[in-house]
């Protein structure tokens, strides 16, 4: 009893030769490489066997190839002005701290050794506004130093009991308005300070007949003149700072254009 012939495998050479002899299209398994490095197998018709891409032995079928990471771009070295900027900023920070603490130490000495109240009032208000120009909390600390005379061996004059709360409150309001904006809010801060003192001088005696100091010409002259000088200095300083910052910004924006043209 004879056995029937074994069926031919679809990929065997005999099966392909039979398909070629019978005129049927020949299906060829072709390996193609994807964009990401993957290898795909597909069956194409009428593709000669010599056209199939050879798969290397080291290729892992179905796994992506390692991703190529390009090297980081090299940045150009900083220019001389950019390299000096950290040192310039550090020096300016040192000057700001040194100037603020120096003014506060001078004010503390004046308050610790009280003298005539017009002189103390003039120096207190002026140094508070100037110390605030160095930033931080120097201005508010200066306002608090106005009461230092009450813990010193020499007590301040009796007028200081009225000067400290009245002028101290007006100075605090001035600093709050001054910190809310640039140089163009300084007139409003000065108007608030002066308006407070003038209102108390005008209507203070109606609430307390004994409170005649705010209407004293020496008191008003010392309190208003010092603050006017301090705010004028602040206005000029802030205008100069705005001009220098804008000029530096224009030079930085023009530097890449000139470099690209060159």
What does this structure look like?
Keywords: Membrane, Transmembrane, Transmembrane helix. There is one protein chain. The chain has about 260 residues and is mainly alpha-helical. It folds into two domains: about 15-50, no CATH class; about 95-250. It contains seven helices and two strands. The protein has helices at about 15-20, 80-110, 115-130, 140-145, 160-180, 185-205, 215-260, and strands at about 25-35, 40-45. A two-stranded antiparallel sheet has the order 1-2. Strand 1 and strand 2 form a beta hairpin. The protein is elongated, with a radius of gyration of 43 Å. The chain starts with 12 loop residues before the first helix and ends with a helix. The model is unreliable at about 45-60 and about 260 (pLDDT under 50).
Task: Based on the model shown, name its key terms.
2 domains; single chain; mainly alpha; 262 residues; disordered C terminus; two-stranded antiparallel ribbon
Overall helicity: 55-70%
Query: What is the tally of beta strands?
Result: 2
Shape verdict: elongated
Uncertain residue segments: 44-60, 258-262
Termini Cα gap: 96 Å
Structural class: mainly alpha
What's the tally of helices?
Answer: 7
Sheet with most strands: strand arrangement: 1-2
Helix and strand run: HEEHHHHHH
Instruction: Compute the number of structural domains.
Output: 2
Largest sheet: 2 strands, antiparallel
């Amino acid at each position: 009893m004879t056995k029937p012939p074994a069926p031919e495998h679809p990929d065997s050479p005999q099966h392909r030769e039979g398909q070629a002899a019978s005129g049927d299209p020949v299906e060829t398994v072709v390996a193609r490489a994807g964009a990401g490095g993957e290898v795909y197998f597909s069956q194409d018709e009428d593709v000669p066997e010599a056209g199939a891409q050879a798969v290397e032995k080291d290729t892992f079928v179905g796994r992506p190839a390692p991703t190529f990471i390009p090297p980081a771009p090299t940045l150009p070295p900083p220019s001389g002005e950019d390299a000096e900027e950290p040192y310039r900023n550090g020096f300016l920070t040192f000057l700001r701290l040194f100037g603020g603490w120096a003014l506060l130490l001078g004010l503390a000495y004046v308050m610790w050794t009280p003298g005539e109240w017009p002189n103390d009032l003039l120096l207190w208000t002026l140094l508070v506004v100037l110390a605030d120009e160095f930033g931080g909390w120097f201005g508010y600390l200066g306002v608090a130093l106005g009461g230092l005379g009450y813990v010193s061996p020499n007590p301040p004059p009796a007028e200081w009991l009225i000067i400290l709360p009245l002028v101290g409150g007006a100075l605090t309001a001035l600093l709050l308005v001054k910190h809310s904006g640039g140089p163009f809010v300084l007139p409003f801060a000065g108007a608030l300070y002066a308006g407070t003192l003038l209102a108390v001088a005008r209507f203070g005696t109606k609430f307390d007949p004994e409170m005649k100091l705010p209407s004293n010409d020496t008191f008003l002259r010392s309190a208003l003149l010092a603050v006017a000088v301090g705010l004028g200095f602040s206005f000029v300083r802030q205008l100069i700072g705005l001009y220098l910052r804008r000029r530096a910004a224009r030079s930085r924006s023009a530097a890449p254009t000139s470099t690209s043209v060159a």
